[in-house]
Amino acid sequence: MFFLTLCCSAANAHPVKVTLSNGQVVYLESDNYQSAADMIADVMRLESQIH
Predict the structure, then answer these.
(1) C-beta separation of 31 from 23 below 8 A
(2) pLDDT (tens digit, 9 = 90+) per residue, 20-46?
């Protein structure tokens, strides 16, 4: 399980805080993704690397 914390205006790229299941916190740059689904897929990839 992981948690995404989204906050900021939609007009600007912003960092998205992600807490992975092992407690590790990573920040993803929203501008690097075409959609939320792309970001979630990247988070799932990160999760698979720690398990």
Answers:
(1) no
(2) 999 999 999 988 988 888 998 999 999
Measure the CA–CA gap between 35 and 51, rounded to whole angstroms: 25
- Decide: 30 and 14 in contact? Cβ < 8 Å: yes
**Higher pLDDT residue, 13 or 43?**
43
Note the helical H segments in the chain. 36-50
Cα 13 to Cα 1, 7, 32, 33, 47: the distances in Å are: 25, 11, 9, 10, 23
Nearest CA to 31 out of 7, 8, 14, 9 is that of 14
